[in-house]
Write a structure and sequence with these properties.
Rossmann fold, alpha/beta, Quinone Oxidoreductase, Chain A, domain 1, globular, 2 domains
Length: 327
Amino acid sequence: MRAAWYTNQGPAREVLEIGEIEAPIPKPGEVRVRIHTSGVNPVDVKRRTGGRGQMEPTVVIPHFDGGGVIEKTGEGVDAGRIDERVWVYEAQWNSDFGTAAEYVTVPATRAIPLPACTSFEDAACLGIPALTAHRCVYGDGPVDGKTILVTGGGGAVGNYAVQFARLGGAHVLSTVSGDEKMALAKLAGAHEVINYREEDIAERVMGVTDGKGTDRIVEVELGGNLSDSLAILKPNGVISAYASEALPEPLIPFYSMLYKNLTLRFELVFLMPEEAKKSAVSDISNWLVDSLLHHHIADVYPLQDVAAAHEAVERGPLGKVLLNLSG
């Protein structure tokens, strides 16, 4: 099979290779998926560059997410699933072989039936961003009638979080950094969108909530936004944080948080409880069937341009970067 891989960490054009490699054989409980589209996430770039720890010398086919068709099943998996269209998540978790290849093997539970109304490109947008967003929004129960702030509503996780919260009946606020991202957050369903470069977040949030504040915050920048979060969260509020790039080691103002009885969650999608993943997959699947989700694609690259795709992710695209493996 054709695939992209690296054996050392470093810049995309220096370490990524493309060529032929033996296709994997599904083990018991696994399926082999013919990948049509592979999704590139920031974590794929960070792993390649060493930002998530050093790797042992080995062949790594990157990427966790994708869309394709089951073409082989392992022992214990219903052979009736062959030819089933699926979206794949966590393909490279605890594995060196991800979706930047014509074939990938994954546990059958990680290959989710894809409705006919959803393209393989849209399928490859899901995975990490969608599951993370669902956990951050629903990790503390239903959101109907609650006020939720989603920081970074124009980003991959944030945009799904806005959509999921709105679908759950929440009053949704979002912060963004510019007009294009503001348009995306509004399309996703945010009731109020705040350009944090032009407005005071706390002042605007307290204004639109009549001084009540928010019940939950879906947080893309825990350290950088913590002071605003404390100003706007209601007592017993929740911060669900999945990143803190600008300030990776924030100081925790213990007593300010204590006297609001706040909950601070750290959400890493790979370690989500299995029940939470099942809940996310169920909701996402239902929303896909009903064509209720918007997926934002920045660009699609052929496999031979995988280095350019990684570089595009490093620049911070407006939408998901994908690899086309079907041509």
